[in-house]
Amino acid sequence: MSIAASDDRRPLIWAISAHRLTEVFRTVSPELADRAAIEIIDKGFDDAIAEIARRSEKRACDVIVAAGAHGAYLRQNVSIPVAFVKVGGFDLMAAICKARQFSDRIAMVMHRRVPPALNRFATLFSLPMQIRAYQTAEDARHCIQELAAAGVEVVVGPGLIANLADEAGLTGILVYSLDSVRAAFDDAIEIAAAQKAEKSRRTQLDSVLYHLNDGVIAVDMAGRIVAANPSVDKLTGRRVREALGQPLRQVLPDLEPGQVMTRGASEIGTVQEMGGKSVVVDRVPLLDEGMQTGAIFTLHGSSELERAVSKLRAHTHRRSRVARYRLDDVVAESAAMRQVIAQCRVFAEHSDAAVLIHGESGTGKELLAQGLHNASRRRRHPFIAINCGAFTETLLESELFGYDEGAFTGARRQGKPGLFESANEGTLFLDEIGEMPLPLQTRLLRALQEKEITRVGSVDTIPVDVRIVAATHRDLLAMVRAGVFREDLYYRLNILQVVVPPLRDRPEDIEALARLLLPAALGRAGLQEAVAPMLEAALPVLKEGAWRGNVRELENVSERLTMACLTEGRPLSRREVRAMLADAPARRQAPAARSLSAVRASQEAAHARAVLAECAGNHQEAARRLGVSRTTLWRKIKAAQAREQASG
After folding, report:
1. What integer pLDDT is reported at residue 391 of this predicted model?
2. InterPro entries under this entry (predicted)?
3. What confidence tens digit (pLDDT) does each residue in 197-217 have?
4. What is the DSSP string of 594-617?
5. How far is CA 535 from CA 312, 523, 530, in A?
6. What is the pTM of this model?
7. DSSP string covering 126-147, please?
8. CB-side exposure of 156: number of CA atoms within 13 Å?
9. Over the range 302-311, which residues count as b (16 or more CB within 10 Å of their CB) and which as e?
10. Residues above pLDDT 90, as percent of the chain
């Protein structure tokens, strides 16, 4: 029966029931005529399946509305989405009240399970009511027979139960209300709208794939081709798009499937010969809600990649111009790390001065530097990082300041801009600043003071606007005393300071980091099912570590545990984790070392003394510049003097 004429702009909904729920459908349907075309089918189970097949030859509906065992049967046997009529708390109470008007000998029979609230409701109000559940129509029939034999007179339940109760000479009460049917139709309309949006998205995606120069093939878990774009045919010389549904190994026998189908492991950038041509292949798993449903193969022609590589080489300094991380990406469960993040946020938003980040290796100094850049006004400009300990003095100089044509043997004909120029208006991150040779420290100091640089082999100055963020794990103040680090450069870099506590001093972060790093490592290896048991086994052991390598070491340990799981073919036990890590450096006693808090206090005191000297001993002016009270300034200097006397 058609309640509303078909309209291409409205979803088509079939409301299906062979019981008294049909009458409720007929009552509610006219209210929704402007939102959906609703047709009511008064059939059940196999008869309904046959009717659906017959009608689908003309036009398949968007969503089916049904209830109870009948709805479950339809969901299992048709590909059309099914929106269920659900029973609410008000429905239950209204049906029970109606049943008690006929008799006190009441039973309620629900499909599959009894809502816990129903049992609580019956207990709370001392209702002498039998409560049952059924799975199939045959179960329902036996249940009604048993209730009739037990003397029950009124049965509340879905349409099937109400009809069977009437057939058995009992009184059947339908549990569904008008409001519950309205809610089911609303759900159906929303499902139809979501399907329409998904279809539109797929059409757009197909259009994108069609115009890609790279070849793209998607297969299901059986290895059958489910999608391909025209570029695949051009790259392989085969008619792949005409072979949908066929096994990939038969259509493209030269294409190696790799481990993406067997282990769900991604493989990027492998090179193989196909049809006499070199092709670069990316293999990635196709996932749906975390479950692998197939794989995607992307084929890149070698000539296109060679041209791309040539362009990348011509723009080598662009390789690190983007800061990927934000301060919100930093794991900070501990109060100490939350304070560090808050401090970085203030420095980013309210100052453009140089920042010195002090912390042990592996604590995430560059991650903080990137987050600081992304929180600052310079976030739309380059972020460029360089490790000052990874280059020789000559090479580091040319990297930082660039060079002119002919500056040295092997120099480019057009010269090359340095990192200061490339980072203009952005942030230059100088990692391991303590490793910079003394001669270069002088050039760096001049660049910071004058805000201009001179390329190697040139006499012309180039103005630059760069914020400097430096990082070190060394005690720069001790290096100043030893004469291996310039004091004036130290104070130029140490305007704002961030001290990152080691992982062993913030145990709250160990578990949070492990819950992030270990699942990520297991996921990369296709061991998602091992995440829960491995976390249960590893977390107590990981919390015992000294973590001299800090977060980097914890990440490395996560990778080793993952490889051990692959080797054993199962998750490790806690005993195995402890045995595996027993000899790891993280569990050895760390030698006595100067704490970061002591380093920070010493550096703050030295900075205070320097400012006091600049103010000719005027404590009030020095305190104003430092942004502290005169009492705090006096206390810092006195504490530093006491530490120096104690150390001899």
Report:
1. 82
2. AAA+_ATPase, AAA_lid_NorR, Homeodomain-like_sf, HTH_Fis, P-loop_NTPase, PAS, PAS-like_dom_sf, PAS_fold
3. 878 777 776 677 777 778 888
4. --HHHHHHHHHHHHHHHHHHHTTT
5. 41, 13, 8
6. 0.45
7. T--EEEEEESSHHHHHHHHHHH
8. 27
9. eeebeeeeee
10. 35
Single-letter residue type at 385: A
| pLDDT tens per residue, range 27-74 | 999 999 899 999 999 888 889 999 999 999 888 899 999 988 788 889
Q: What are phi and psi of 568, to 5 degrees?
A: -80, -20
Q: Which residues pair with 156 in a beta bridge?
A: 108, 173
Rounded to the nearest 5 degrees, what angle is found at the Cα of 197, between the Cα atoms of 58 and 7? 40
Residue 341 pLDDT greater than 90, yes or no: yes
Percent of the chain topping pLDDT 70: 88
On whether the CB atoms of residues 369 and 471 are closer than 8 A, the answer is yes
What architecture does CATH give domain 306-499?
3-Layer(aba) Sandwich (3.40)
Q: What values do phi and psi take at 70, rounded to 5? A: -65, -45
Q: Which residue has the tokens 């969503």?
A: 63
What CATH architecture is 212-302? 2-Layer Sandwich (3.30)
What pLDDT is recorded for position 304? 64
CATH topology of domain 12-85+181-196: Rossmann fold (3.40.50)
Strand order in the sheet with 355-358: 383-387, 427-431, 467-472, 355-358, 496-499
User: Looking at the predicted structure, is the pLDDT value of residue 225 above 80?
Assistant: yes
In this structure, the number of other CB atoms found within 10 A of the CB of residue 595 comes to 12
Burial tier of 18 (Cβ tally within 10 Å: 0-12, 13-18, 19+): middle
Length of the chain: 648
The domain 597-646 having CATH identifier 1.10.10: the answer here is yes
| Residues 6 or more apart in contact with residue 90 via CB below 8 angstroms | 177, 179
CA angle 177, 181, 187 (to 5 degrees): 145
Q: Which CATH superfamily includes the segment(s) 89-175? A: PrpR receptor domain-like (3.40.50.10660)
For the chain, give the mean pLDDT.
83
Tokens matching residue 124: 């709370």
Place of tokens 């805000």: 451
Place of tokens 């005993």: 575
Dihedral (Cα; 359, 363, 364, 366), 10-degree rounding? 30
352 — phi, psi (to 5°)? -120, 15
Q: How confident is the model at residue 255 (pLDDT cuts 50, 70, 90)?
A: confident
Burial string for 71-108 (b: 16+ CB within 10 Å, else e) reads bbbbbeebeebbbbbebbeebbebbbeebeeeeebbbb
User: CA-CA distance, 298 to 269, in Å (whole number)?
Assistant: 10
Closest CA to 390 of 419, 422, 355: 419
**HEC sequence for 228-288:** ECHHHHHHHCCCHHHHCCCEHHHHCCCCCCCCCCCCCCCEEEEEEEECCEEEEEEEEEEEE
pLDDT of residue 316: 44
What is the rounded distance in angstroms from the CA atom of residue 546 to the CA atom of residue 537? 18
Three-class secondary structure assignment of 362-411: CCCHHHHHHHHHHCCCCCCCCEEEEECCCCCHHHHHHHHHEECCCCCCCC
Contact in structure between 29 and 178 (CB atoms under 8 Å) = no
